[in-house]
Amino acid sequence: MISPSSSSNILNRRYELPTCRLEIWTERSPLSEWQSQIVAQNLKFKLRLGDSLGNRGKLIKGNQQQISCLIEAVTTYCDRWLAQDKFDSLTHKISIPKSSKLNLSTLQLSTVQLFDLYEGLELCASEFVILPTIVLEVRRISPSWLKIAASMLAIIGVSFGAIRLISRDQASYQIAQPTSVLSPEITALSPSPQKTESIPSTSSQPVAPASPKTTSPSDDRNVREIPSQDSEAIAPESKPRVRDQDQNDITAIAPQISQPASEPNIVRQRTSDNSNFAKPPAAATLEAPSPETGSPSIGRSESVPTEQSTASKLAIESPAMRSSAPVNRANNGANTDTDKLASIKILNVKSTLPTQVYTDLARYVQYQKITSSAKGTISFEIDLSGQEVVKIELKSESSTLADANAVQTLQKLITQWRSPIAATGKIYMTLQIN
Amino acid sequence: MTMTSASSFDSINEPTLPQLQAIKAHLDLILIALEALTGLGSDEMLSVAEKLGLTEILSDRITLWRLRQASPLRKGKGRKKLDVDEARAMTLISCSLATQQQFAIRNAVAQLEKSTSLKLPPHRDAIIGDYLDRFNSLYQERMTEEDQAKPDAIQRLALKLLIDLLFYSSQMGSRRLWVALFERSQT
């Protein structure tokens, strides 16, 4: 069941085995849209290892990076152990890298404890995609083509800066420029507003900038194949993120971008602010790496020299835009340019039906495009029979949205939804319309 | 029994000849361990094969016997080949049976740990003792003369297989067994 906390949806799971109890709390990364599993974000866990007699043993708490190391260490140890023909001992010592802060650097377990721990971790890993935090190492650029690409970027950046200076008065021209810095793809697509309500057309905006930061494996691959200018761009922006305790940088940027209605506004804003848009990327992105150690490379578990971060901090916002585009080329469908476009946020979903059913509905509803003259909440009671919604009722006692048309549109859209699996029952859904 | 590990099968390349030898041996031994611990026989194995939809590969006792006979450790002549689909089928069957018997397996391992921690020889425990005896008989009855290892070695092998069975009795057991088969043959 998805239940909201103050600012985000936090999912909670508990995996209980005789000698192991694993509890996790995680946010649902926007990347989850592109995966069949939920991609974890800001995961925290509590692990209690007991013994067969029921004695409460060690309590281990940690974050996403640490559970990722734990999973990898345990899986590798067990797979290797199973592949052997002999065994020396029934006690297992597993060393877990990068966990010296917790009381976790070495785990000593009996065989049964190891089995339960492995089981718990695998159950968790099968439900969530848990990516290790990206930590980057900045290395010298060796291939000369990278240097060429870097200088190309400087030239482009500087030219745009020059063009902006020249055409300062022409507002429309200014709008065009940053979009092309954003990505050629966005410029191409923006004139033709999306007519169909397909999922990629809407949510991709929030996903795109987020993707370099959370680096799913597929994004990693995309990133590596992209010419280095983008990989360079991603790296500096990721570094401050790593340094931070939480991901405030990302959350600060993402919501700005995630409201499709205001996305064109953001672009205009940036332009008129004359802010760190076209120029600093050229300056910061390139100068940061080159004088020191050169272009960063995308890796998973490498450490970051902290001195790099200040210069590259400027590069946070625009590289995020720039690098996102090639990665999510198809998805940068223009959001419509009407300001009345409302965003739909799922506040609450309750149902006794299988998770697959109501999460599918939630996803579907989230990506619907409606216009609304007002803000507020809507609560529906939805009756599902088979794969179709047979009845939908507005719960006026928990609905504050004044726009009746919006309510009707939503109701119609929900009745058009088809459940992935046949089920019969009720779904209670509360939405926030902004 | 989940088939979630099916995708991991496709990601591993076709095994080489030495790999196949090690795989065949281990698959047969896993089944022997299951037989020794739980008394399961070919009837149960065939019934699981049917439930998993593997009857095209394995539908009768003769075929089952032939597949197990492919192990290089077994006595007797005859076809010693095992193709990847057959290995996969045996993996799925073994893990399905192990999952069914998880309670018994877990209990046995817990007893083994207890005996070991008390510094007692494993066979002193009733369950482990019976298991070791049955494993020993089956091994001597079926394996070739050259592979008649010393009793200590057979005992250690039996205990290792018992613990392996615990790990394979998990929901993700067939993935683990498949990976272990291929990792094993590397060493």
What's the end-to-end separation of chain B, in Å?
30 Å
What coarse outline of chain A follows from CA principal-axis ratios?
A: flat
The biggest sheet of chain B, with number of strands, parallel, antiparallel or mixed sense and barrel status, is: none
Strand content of chain A: 15-25%
Per DSSP E runs of 2 or more residues, the count of β-strands of chain A stands at 14
Stretches with pLDDT under 50, minimum 5 residues of chain B: 1-11
**Structural class category of chain A:** alpha+beta
- Derived from helix and strand composition plus strand pairing, the structural class of chain B reads mainly alpha
Q: Write down the Rg of chain A.
A: 25 Å
What proportion of the residues of chain A is helical, as a percent range? Answer: 40-55%
Overall morphology of chain B:
globular
- Name the average pLDDT of chain B: 87
Find the count of extended strands of chain B (DSSP E, 2+ residues).
0
Number of helices of chain A: 15
Biggest interface, residues from each chain: A-B, 20 and 26 residues
**What is the domain tally of chain B?**
1
Describe the protein's topology.
The complex is a heterodimer of chains A (434) and B (187).
Chain A: E1 10-17, E2 20-28, E3 38-49, E4 59-63, H1 64-83, E5 91-95, E6 106-110, H2 111-127, E7 128-129, E8 137-138, H3 144-166, H4 171-182, H5 184-189, H6 199-214, H7 217-225, H8 228-243, H9 248-258, H10 263-273, H11 279-287, E9 296-297, H12 309-313, H13 317-327, E10 341-342, E11 344-351, H14 355-366, E12 370-371, E13 376-394, H15 404-416, E14 418-433
Parallel strand pairs in A: 3-7
Antiparallel strand pairs in A: 1-2, 2-3, 3-4, 5-6, 8-9, 10-12, 11-14, 13-14
Helix pairs in contact in A: 1-2, 3-4, 3-11, 4-10, 6-9, 6-13, 8-13
Chain B: H1 6-11, H2 17-38, H3 42-51, H4 61-69, H5 84-100, H6 102-117, H7 126-142, H8 151-168, H9 173-186
Helix pairs in contact in B: 2-5, 2-7, 2-8, 2-9, 3-5, 5-9, 6-8, 7-8
